[in-house]
Specification:
DNA-binding, alpha+beta, 187 residues, homodimer
Chain lengths: 187, 187
DNA sequence: TTAATGATGCCACCTTTGTGAAGTAAATCT
DNA sequence: AGATTTACTTCACAAAGGTGGCATCATTAA
């Protein structure tokens, strides 16, 4: 649980009581490669913290598997389009490397917001930062060729290319596996 | 100011005092078409509410003007990648139709978060909703042809095509003006 | 260990989109 | 109103990326 509180400190330090309140509504999940942590069409009621392992959020568009994004150690995993709307998600979370994950019950967490405004503030800041990342990603997608997007990934997040099958990387970049292979071939 | 509080009600109703506190740090701006409400490379310290008019966020990539998104009546305008990080923004806000805008001083607003947790909650919810919209937009960009993206825009946000010059729509869709013209030609 | 499956790379061919150039229409400015 | 700029469209050509097929190598399962 310590890794989680260390992570929180970067956003908003918590009192001991607040940490305990979060610990009380959390549990540790270990899950094997290729399993779905959460399946498609379930409503997201859990916020996850990746202690160890790799995961991705994916969905199907016209029958094709598309990766929305990847998650590595020390990051928060959530399908926000379900978590914040209460609607079922069309997306699933899949484990790509045997993982150890902390699961926080979001229904209870949101109740804690009423008692501990420091917790509400913490998660406000966490999701503000995630929002900024997402806005920046749109910029990357809007006017760059596949090759430029690949090279950017190579520099900014080499983890992805070392720990994740290329077929998932391709759809993440918005291209087919063939195009990705072609681009990598340019060397 | 009333339009703003009406808008807030959809997210988190405020007490009269909280409304007054926000009114005290806000001002009304009227600004003409084609003017920049905020220029590139300024750090964003204002959250805007569009009462009347149209605006866009844009930036330059390799010397080319790219539109990130549009804003119409009854929406919050902010360059979050600057607002939430304190860094200067590479983006500007430009007015596309004579506008009447409410400007909220964000430095003072963030201070109000300490006194009025209802205000912190309100803006948490506003930006959570904006975050969800942004995540959904990535989905639209990841695996659709330019023609599909155009048709989706035609259905979901016809305002854009009726009130905004096509050259701005093109870069918003991630294509050139020539491609957009070609697609529209298919009729 | 062998079979089966999955991941990757590569080829030929075709479709979509970008580029540069040019023309027309509409808006804006004295 | 006339001049100038801006918006939009079109064309011919080039480049990028998708499709279907197939070969190879690595991983997993029996």
């Amino acid at each position: 649980m310590d890794a989680l509180f260390q992570y929180f400190k970067k956003f908003n330090p918590l009192s001991k009581e607040a940490e305990k309140a979060i610990a009380d509504i959390s549990s540790i999940v270990t899950i094997k490669k290729n399993k779905d942590l959460q399946p498609i069409s379930h409503t997201c009621k859990t916020i996850y913290f990746m202690k160890k392992g790799v995961a991705r959020i994916y969905y199907f568009k016209d029958g094709i598997d598309i990766t929305e994004r990847f998650f590595f150690e020390n990051s928060i995993i959530a399908r926000v389009e379900s978590l914040f709307t209460g609607k079922p998600s069309r997306k699933a979370i899949q484990i790509l490397e045997d993982a150890e994950i902390i699961a926080i019950n979001s229904t209870q967490l949101f109740k804690l917001y009423n008692t501990y405004s420091e917790i509400e503030r913490l998660f406000r800041k966490i999701f503000e930062a995630a929002y900024v990342e997402t806005v920046n990603r749109i910029e990357g997608m809007q006017f760059h060729s596949a090759e430029e997007r690949y090279n950017a990934l190579l520099i900014e997040d080499p983890n992805v290319l070392m720990r994740v099958p290329l077929k998932y990387v391709a759809s993440f970049l918005g291209i087919t596996q063939v195009s990705l292979s072609r681009i990598r071939g340019y060397r």
